[in-house]
Amino acid sequence: MEGTWQLVWGMIFGSIGFGFFLYGRKQHAPVPLVTGIVLIIFPYFIANIYALVVVGCALIALPYFLRL
């Protein structure tokens, strides 16, 4: 059952990351662009579900607090 939830959370964060990536590319904004790439890739490297959710939520909040 843990693998199923990891897949679901990975798809959620990947979809949000794709949105950040598209926004960053169109607006020429480096922070959303890099955040989007990281959100797409990081679920492959984190096996713990709780860590996956915490890191994903932190990455989603990053562009709000870090503006360049």
Radius of gyration: 12 Å
Mean pLDDT: 92
The level of helicity is over 70%
Shape verdict = elongated
Distance between the first and last residues' Cα: 41 Å
Low-pLDDT stretches are none
Report the sheet with the most strands, covering strand number, pairing sense and barrel closure: none
Give helix and strand order, one letter per element, not per position. Answer: HHH
Number of folding domains? 1
Overall structural class, as computed from helix and strand content, comes to mainly alpha
The count of strands amounts to 0
Name the beta content range. Answer: under 5%
Number of helices: 3
Quick structural summary:
The chain has helices spanning 2-27, 30-41, 49-65. The protein is mostly helical. 13% of the residues are buried.
Question: Could you walk me through the main structural features you see in this protein, from its secondary elements to its overall organization?
Answer:
This protein is mainly α and 68 residues long. The protein has one domain (2-65). The chain contains three helices and no strands. The chain has helices at residues 2-27, 30-41, 49-65. Helix 1 packs antiparallel against helix 2, helix 1 runs parallel beside helix 3 and helix 2 packs antiparallel against helix 3 (49-65). The termini are far apart. The model has no long low-confidence stretch (mean pLDDT 92).
